[in-house]
């Protein structure tokens, strides 16, 4: 009997093609779509009537599944998503950090609870539309997590928390595809999502206005306070800590001779945003906690390529393990705007292709 | 893979006899019942006959039956139409916490529009206490709506007693009998019912057709404006084939209801005895006595209902988690919540509903599949053993 694969289908083109590729390869494919947040927030009811369709993502996934002739189910994960992702997201901003909710979602939701459920109904594998590769070294009996072939689409950064156990039953069929080819495949198969736009950065904030989202959910976080420069002088008033992230220049509304100003640090205890010239943004030392290792837990210092945010370019660094779950990292060249809450992901030093592990920057 | 269908409370298969009655109106007899010519008259006669069939099955006059697109539209027409025609400026209306969403959300909409709404509680079996109805009635109470039997648990309400209580107070009484119709002979006149909802696809008829019984002389305002079809209560060209199907299904039901009850009851008892009664991993939701013979609702300790349903579907067993949700995701049931079903039972409820196509062998297999599936997924209890 063919192996059964549960495919996490978001209704987007990547996960739709993922399902199609696996079906072509002869797997017993099951589509699963997760309800993660209240779609109703998309369209505020008018006169108590929901005037627009709020289930389009699920509908798209179901339409794709019916064309591919695979069974499709929806799982309601709104409660765990709220606790593990949305609350984490909100709390991080309260603490002056810049969270990465996709990483939390991958850990707790997709490769956590979804796999747990899928294995319960007999799935041998879980597949997602991520652009990353998995290889197996039969000599060392170790799975490796590698970058996607299309470097521009590579998503290995958000997958650094995958463990050996998880990698042994995860499939990333998109690994070797180029995005353009993905859409061609979708069109050839007659999938209606072939020209669907890229998904938003943060799925539960569809309008991308995270400040509005936070204002609505936690208005208390928006306490105006002082902008303070590197000499300790108050140079202006800020609108509340969640409005700012390290390295930010726009929207500070700070004129004056000392500028241009950049956000260099966030002091939640005193409700102060520290600002300064761009050169103050650069640092070589980074500390990360909650570390997770893909292959082996390092005991000794080692060289690696480090990446301090999704869009950053990886750079050579020395990694000093501090116990099993924390690291000190020293970059060879200063990194711009190292931001607490973002992930530091470490790749092998030779070609930066293989994920070694990562942690959360503090 | 052999598949076993035990979700007859969601939709029944179409009875062959019903299908054959409908087919001419999907093929050769395509006239519009409003047309004066031969073709129109053929269609009109068919609708007329169907109306008489449905009326007969309820012991009422044909002129008191209005055909709709289904149970939901009939519920809306009854509640909104009655209020609009008689009490457009507000008043107090009563329903229960365990209604189908067609009624529950209509009442919520009425509350938004300014009506005062009371949602009556139910006991652990999902039954409304007539004394609670009596207590809830006020000077300005104008309408009570209570379902005859619950779609998730099969629990049957004391409809006649509630009807008497309502009428004593001069309050109108609507009953959603979509689930009950197939198994309980309903007599609106004797049961003190003013408005009664039925539909086709729970009684081996087609989807997309329902009916509302409106007591003689009761004013109801239409929801849709247009032609004068259905005594001005439901504008739009009739769904002739569907209406013929509902009529035929009602007529057959009258003949076979008793036999269907006995068959379903035997299957339900077999299922209960062999799966639920002697196994502490299971809990019956509702009672075995004051319930429809075709629906059984149970929970599995600490299990996740959605995973169970998917696992069972993969083994070829089609059941449901109670009410079907638009997205297909399983949500905690408002019915079980109202019955004070708590964790670890709340998220693992399963509704099994039997039909006339089901055999004893089907149920034996279903019991076997559920037990085997639990050994695979393991309810938490098992892991600790």
TrEMBL record, chain A:
Residues of the tRNA-specific 2-thiouridylase MnmA-like C-terminal domain: 286-361
Main location: cytoplasm
UniProt keyword list: ATP-binding, Cytoplasm, Disulfide bond, Nucleotide-binding, RNA-binding, Transferase, tRNA processing, tRNA-binding
Binding residue positions for ATP: 8-15, 34, 129
BP GO terms, sorted: tRNA wobble position uridine thiolation
Catalyses which reaction(s): S-sulfanyl-L-cysteinyl-[protein] + uridine(34) in tRNA + AH2 + ATP = 2-thiouridine(34) in tRNA + L-cysteinyl-[protein] + A + AMP + diphosphate + H(+)
Region (Interaction with tRNA): 153-155, 309-310
Localization of this protein: Cytoplasm
Role: Catalyzes the 2-thiolation of uridine at the wobble position (U34) of tRNA, leading to the formation of s(2)U34.
Protein name: tRNA-specific 2-thiouridylase MnmA
Species name: Megasphaera cerevisiae DSM 20462
TrEMBL record, chain B:
Cofactor(s), names only, from the UniProt record: pyridoxal 5'-phosphate
Keywords assigned by UniProt, alphabetized: Iron, Iron-sulfur, Metal-binding, Pyridoxal phosphate, Transferase
Molecular function via GO: cysteine desulfurase activity; iron-sulfur cluster binding; metal ion binding
E.C. number(s) listed in UniProt: 2.8.1.7
All copies of domain Aminotransferase class V, residue ranges: 4-365
Transmembrane segments: none
Pfam families documented for this protein: Aminotran_5
UniProt catalytic activity: (sulfur carrier)-H + L-cysteine = (sulfur carrier)-SH + L-alanine
Domain of life assignment: Bacteria
Family to which this protein belongs: Belongs to the class-V pyridoxal-phosphate-dependent aminotransferase family. NifS/IscS subfamily.
NCBIfam families: PRK02948.1
PANTHER family to which the protein is assigned, alphabetical: CYSTEINE DESULFURASE, CYSTEINE DESULFURYLASE FAMILY MEMBER
Name of protein: cysteine desulfurase
């Amino acid at each position: 009997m063919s192996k059964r694969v549960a495919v996490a289908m978001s209704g987007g083109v990547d996960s739709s093609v993922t399902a199609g590729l696996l079906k072509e390869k002869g797997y017993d494919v099951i589509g699963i779509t997760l309800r993660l947040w209240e779609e109703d927030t998309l369209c505020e009811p008018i006169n108590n009537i929901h005037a627009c369709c709020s289930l389009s993502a699920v509908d798209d996934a179901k339409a794709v599944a019916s064309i591919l002739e695979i069974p499709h189910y929806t799982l309601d994960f709104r409660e765990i998503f709220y606790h593990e992702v949305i609350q984490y997201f909100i709390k991080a901003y309260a603490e002056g950090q810049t969270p990465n909710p996709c990483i939390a979602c991958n850990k707790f939701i997709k490769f956590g609870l979804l796999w747990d459920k899928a294995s319960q109904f007999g799935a041998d594998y879980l597949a997602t539309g991520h652009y990353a590769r998995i290889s197996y070294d039969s000599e060392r009996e170790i799975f490796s997590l590698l970058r996607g072939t299309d470097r521009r689409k590579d998503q290995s950064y958000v997958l650094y928390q995958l463990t050996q156990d998880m990698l042994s039953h995860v499939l990333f069929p998109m690994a070797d595809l180029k995005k353009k080819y993905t859409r061609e495949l979708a069109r050839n198969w007659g999938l209606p999502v072939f020209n669907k736009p890229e998904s938003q950065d943060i799925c539960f904030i569809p309008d991308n206005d995270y400040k509005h989202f936070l204002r609505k959910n936690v208005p208390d976080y928006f306490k105006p306070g002082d902008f303070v420069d590197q000499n300790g002088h108050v140079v202006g008033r800020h609108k509340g800590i969640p409005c700012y992230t390290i390295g930010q220049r726009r929207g500070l509304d700070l004129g004056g001779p000392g500028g241009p100003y950049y956000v260099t640090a966030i002091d939640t205890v005193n409700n102060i945003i520290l600002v300064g010239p761009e050169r103050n943004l650069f640092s070589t030392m980074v500390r990360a906690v909650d570390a997770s290792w893909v292959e082996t837990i390092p005991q000794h210092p080692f060289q690696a390529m480090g990446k301090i945010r999704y869009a950053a370019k990886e750079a050579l660094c020395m990694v000093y393990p501090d116990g099993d779950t924390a690291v000190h990292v020293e970059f060879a060249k200063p990194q711009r705007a190292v931001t607490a809450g973002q992930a530091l992901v470490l790749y092998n030093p030779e070609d930066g292709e293989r994920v070694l592990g990562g942690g959360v920057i503090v | 893979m052999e598949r076993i269908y035990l979700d007859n409370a969601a939709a029944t298969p179409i009875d062959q006899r019903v299908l054959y009655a409908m087919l001419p109106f999907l093929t050769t007899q395509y006239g519009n019942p409003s047309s004066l010519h031969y073709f129109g008259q053929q269609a009109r006669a068919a609708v007329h006959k169907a109306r008489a069939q449905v009326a007969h099955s309820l012991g009422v006059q044909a002129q008191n039956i209005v055909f709709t697109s289904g149970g939901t539209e009939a519920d809306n027409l009854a509640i909104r139409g009655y209020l609009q025609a008689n009490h457009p400026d507000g008043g107090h209306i009563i329903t229960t916490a365990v209604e189908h969403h067609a009624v529950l959300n209509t009442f919520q909409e009425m509350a938004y529009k300014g009506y005062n709404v009371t949602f009556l509680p139910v006991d652990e079996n999902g039954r409304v206490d007539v004394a609670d109805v009596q207590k809830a009635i006020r000077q300005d109470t104008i309408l009570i709506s209570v379902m005859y039997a619950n779609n998730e648990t099969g629990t049957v309400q004391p409809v006649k007693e509630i009807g008497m209580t309502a009428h004593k107070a001069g309050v109108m009484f609507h009953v959603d009998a979509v689930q009950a119709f197939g198994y309980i002979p309903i007599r609106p006149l004797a049961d003190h019912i003013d408005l009664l909802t039925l539909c086709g696809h729970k009684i081996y008829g087609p989807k997309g057709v329902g009916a509302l019984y409106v007591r003689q002389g009761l004013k109801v305002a239409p929801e849709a404006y247009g032609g004068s079809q259905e005594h001005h209560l439901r504008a739009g060209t009739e769904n002739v084939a569907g209406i013929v199907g509902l009529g035929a299904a009602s007529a057959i039901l009258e003949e076979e209801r008793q036999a269907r009850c006995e068959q379903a009851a035997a299957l339900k008892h077999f299922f209960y005895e062999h799966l639920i009664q002697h196994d502490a991993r299971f809990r019956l939701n509702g009672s075995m006595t004051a319930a429809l013979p075709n629906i059984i609702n149970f929970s599995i300790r600490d299990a996740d209902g959605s995973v169970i349903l998917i696992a069972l579907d993969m083994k070829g067993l089609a059941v449901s988690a109670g009410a079907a949700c638009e997205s297909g995701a399983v949500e905690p049931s408002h019915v079980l919540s109202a019955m004070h079903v708590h964790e670890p039972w709340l998220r693992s409820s399963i509704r099994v509903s039997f039909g006339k196509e089901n055999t004893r062998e089907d149920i034996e297999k279903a019991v076997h599949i559920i037990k085997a599936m639990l050994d695979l997924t393991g309810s938490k209890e098992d892991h600790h053993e």
